[in-house]
Amino acid sequence: MGRKWNNIKEKKASKDGNTSRIYAKFGVEIYVAAKKGEPDPESNRALKVVLERAKTYNVPKAIIDRALDKAKGSAEENYDELRYEGFGPNGSMVIVDTLTNNVNRTASAVRSAFNKSGGNMGVNGSVSYMFDETAVIGLEGKSVDDVIELLLEADVDVRDVIEEDDSVLVYADPDQFHAVQEAFKQAGITEFTVAEVTMLAQNYISIPVESQGQFEKMIDALEDLEDVQQVYHNVEFED
Description:
This is Probable transcriptional regulatory protein BVG16_21790. The chain is an alpha+beta fold.
């Protein structure tokens, strides 16, 4: 599963270059999650997932509090959660998750980002069947054996536990996200290198060196869009 985590790291690293844009997107995502239920992560699991992921991106508390206060207020902003699927260079597969208050604007912008980089949008389901929704939680300072023992003692089922670089990574079903985190927190572990529910490709493809720039241009164009929250793909680059 190391390839999958590399994919996440590459995506996260690309986002870290523009923190103000990332913080703004988290503000919208936190607001939408809070409006789905109570603006309290202890009673709103969707909100708790977003806040845990925001923590790994070092989103300032002021931005989180502002989004939560906005959700508690009387103002009402309506956002649609939409997923777009498509194909990039060399048959690569891409999933784009958005939150938008203008569906026509977002659809047009996503389609343009695909088309300008040699890709094309597909129909719903054309790509997502090749991805699995997966909870990924990473931590440092523990061995794989330590983590497995801890999870067994907590009676938490996971898909896999691996070591990659300096982190131990736990892959689990999405509905086990909170159970895994709670097991760690009960053991005094509260800091995570990654904590999110993501879409991981079942199989990854390599893109030739000559096509890498075109693919990266497409991913950057998609991630730069205001309404795009997450971009997932099935590419790993050749050395």
